[in-house]
Write a structure and sequence with these properties.
By secondary structure, the chain is of the alpha/beta class. Helices cover about 40% and strands about 15% of the residues. Strand 10, helix 11 and strand 11 form a beta-alpha-beta unit. Helix 3 packs parallel to helix 4.
């Protein structure tokens, strides 16, 4: 198949004319796409270029824009296409930019997602599925996250975690006897091959930094060279649609809406290869957390997947009381308060003036240390972000 592309030169960059041509000519069915910037010969007039190339083309694709609807060359190309009785396919952002007698022709809307536009264009032309030069579309998703995801890592105080898995298996054990795990050690455990296919459940009270903890992990996966082969998929459990479909489809629709399962096979491949890391936030806010928890457990076991769940402490109790959720389950408590955190936090977040920074940080540290002591004496749980918010008011 040969295609003639009609467009206004003013739109070359905005409508990615060269990339459209490159994409179409990559397809097996399309032998050639003629367009003005490349296919005019030395000394050839516009009329000769237009007549010779439209005559041998099977289809004329017209890019209709504010610029092209009043463009004399574009209108002449449309007239020539009609004279040779060629099919005309409009590409447009707004229907009103299409000339009146072509508005009834089946066309393609130009959208910001260029890949989806190309797929739609090729499907409308041939009825077939398009091929792309890149190896995996999910990698584009990662690259886009790398560009757009913002997280101020420099002001984040990395918390500690306490592995309480054994505590929930043997009730007579005390949580306080179990050692604390640093953030970095937890990250090492998460990406250890042995951890694949495990359900990692992290609990903490409300407003204690669970979501920020997952954001920090997401940032590390996107920016650390050692983790460059992994893709973080952050999912808000409260917004996860509860229906009868399997978790692959539910996760996919949450992450890549409006793609009609086109990349589902690629998504599954990354999950099953262990290169995808599902970061599921706020399980306890889901409409049916108990049922979802059981499905998540089966999901990680059957697909050897990497999954981290954050939730409130009640979910740990739910797991302990469920005989079906035992195999490869790791339970952690997020410990956002540590003795160094107060000083670290105020240095990173509270002071901008170097000459008073150390003195102010030390003063704040002493005040907050006393408040922590008072709360502990009353038997109240110490939650660092809440203390910081209280102090800032």
């Amino acid at each position: 198949m040969k295609i003639f592309l009609s467009y206004s030169s003013t739109d070359t960059a905005d409508f990615k004319i060269e990339k459209i041509v490159e994409f179409l000519e990559f397809q097996v069915d399309i032998k050639r796409v003629y367009y003005w910037a490349r296919d005019t010969k030395g000394g050839e007039t516009f009329d000769d270029y237009m007549r010779n190339n439209i005559k041998i083309s099977d289809l004329v694709v017209v890019i209709f824009t504010e610029n092209s609807k009043d463009s004399v060359p574009v209108l002449e190309e449309i007239g020539m296409a009609k004279a040779f009785q060629k099919k005309i396919m409009p590409v447009f952002e707004k229907v009103e930019n299409i000339v009146a007698d072509i508005q009834s022709s089946r066309g393609v809307r130009f959208i910001s997602n260029f890949r989806m536009f190309c797929e739609d264009l090729y499907h409308k032309i041939t009825g077939k599925k398009a091929k792309f030069k890149e190896s995996n579309p999910i990698l584009e998703f990662r690259n886009e996250m790398h560009k757009t995801f913002k997280f101020n890592k420099s002001s984040y105080v990395e918390p500690e975690l306490r592995d309480v898995t054994e505590t929930y298996k043997e009730e007579d054990k005390s949580e306080k006897k179990l050692p604390l795990i640093s953030y970095r050690i937890f990250e090492f455990i998460l990406f250890d091959p042995i951890n694949r296919g495990s359900l990692n459940v992290i609990t903490a009270p409300p407003h204690s930094g669970k979501t920020i903890f997952l954001f920090s992990l997401k940032h590390d996966i996107l920016h650390q060279e050692l983790l460059s082969n992994y893709i973080p998929f952050f999912i808000d459990a409260e917004k996860l649609i509860d229906d009868s479909r399997d978790l692959f489809h539910r996760f996919y629709d949450y992450l890549l809406p409006d793609t009609d399962d086109r990349y589902l096979e690629n998504f599954e491949m990354f999950i099953k290869s262990g290169k995808a890391v599902i970061l599921l936030d706020g399980l306890s806010k889901n409409t049916n957390p108990e049922e979802l928890l059981e499905k998540l457990h089966k999901f990680v076991l059957s697909n050897n997947a990497r999954l981290i769940i954050t939730c409130r402490p009640v979910i740990h109790d739910l797991i302990r009381g469920s005989p079906d959720i035992e195999e490869k389950v790791h339970l952690y408590m997020l410990n956002s308060f540590k003795s160094s955190s107060l000083f670290e936090w105020v240095v990173l977040n509270k002071n901008n003036y170097e000459q008073t920074r150390l003195h102010q940080a030390r003063t704040i540290y002493l005040i907050l240390k006393e408040r922590v002591k008072q709360k502990e004496e009353k038997g109240e749980r110490v939650v660092l972000p809440s203390l910081m918010q209280e102090f800032s008011m």
